[in-house]
Design a protein that fits this description.
By secondary structure, the protein is of the alpha/beta class. The protein has ten helices and seven strands. The protein has a seven-stranded parallel sheet with strand order 1-2-3-4-5-6-7.
């Protein structure tokens, strides 16, 4: 962060075991002629097997934040899918982390195969009632062989159902077509914001043209995916004004959080 002049960061935990072993081949027959869709399905199955039941440990986030509480904002990675009898316990875990200074929630639609808005209605309601300033970050996952994905209609339903909940669509510009769809379909839903990590530059530019640059929030997803410098350069090289770049890099997120 110091190297690239990043003054503040929103941080959450990662599942290190799952991240490192997602592509492990556990096929006892040693078959290596799987179709591509079967390989994708198996990768996500491996990932889910390595995800613990309930909630991830966020002690790493707490320890990093304790180094400089003014610099780091803590988001809790929440798994909204659990047995009904475990609901009270899981939301108590989330509430306890809010009391420890966590100020937002992330859900990963792909890993947990989360249907939007069906599987997060309780979570959205809980957050809106607890503190409507706490945003919900949704990891965007497009449709693939094992999952129906998230559509702009899904997000519109969520935004309409919870108008006081601020929703961040993570990785909003994974492809040009998605960004055009989201921008045109969701521009009137003022409680939806768009995060830039893992996005292609033209998709980011498309979102700026449709929803306006003030609803874009710079993100890096570092160190999991792209290098931080690459994510910064995507914004720097866009044909927009320096003031707009400064808003995307800093001002929008700073006022938002």
């Amino acid at each position: 962060m110091d190297t690239y002049n990043v003054e503040k960061a929103i941080i959450t935990t990662i599942n290190r075991a799952a991240t490192s072993k997602i592509y492990a081949n556990d096929d006892s027959n040693g078959a290596n002629g799987d179709k591509e869709k079967d390989r994708v399905k198996k990768a996500f199955e491996n990932l889910r097997k390595l995800m613990p039941e309930g909630q991830l440990d966020h002690q790493d986030v707490i320890e990093i934040s304790n180094r400089d509480s003014e610099r780091f904002y803590k988001f809790f990675w929440f798994n909204p899918k659990f047995a009904p009898e475990k609901e009270e316990y899981n939301y108590k875990v989330l509430e306890n982390h809010f009391k420890k200074g966590f100020c937002g929630v992330k859900v990963h639609s792909g890993i947990h195969l989360v249907k939007i808005p069906r599987d997060i209605m309780k979570l959205a309601s809980f957050m809106q009632d607890y503190n409507k300033n706490f945003p919900l970050f949704i990891h965007f996952t497009p449709k693939f062989s094992a999952f129906g994905g998230i559509s702009s209609k899904d997000l519109a339903k969520l935004a309409t159902s919870f108008p006081d909940l601020r929703i961040i669509l993570g990785h909003a510009g994974l492809a040009m077509e998605f960004a055009i769809d989201f921008g045109l379909s969701l521009k009137h839903y003022k409680n939806i914001y768009f995060e830039t990590s893992c996005s292609i530059p033209y998709a980011i530019l498309s979102l700026i043209k449709t929803v306006g640059h003030r609803r874009l929030l710079f993100g890096s997803d570092a160190p999991v995916t792209n290098p931080l410098k690459l994510e910064i350069d995507k914004i720097l090289y866009l044909p927009i004004t320096n003031d707009q770049k400064q808003d995307i890099f800093y001002n929008n997120v700073n006022s938002f959080i």
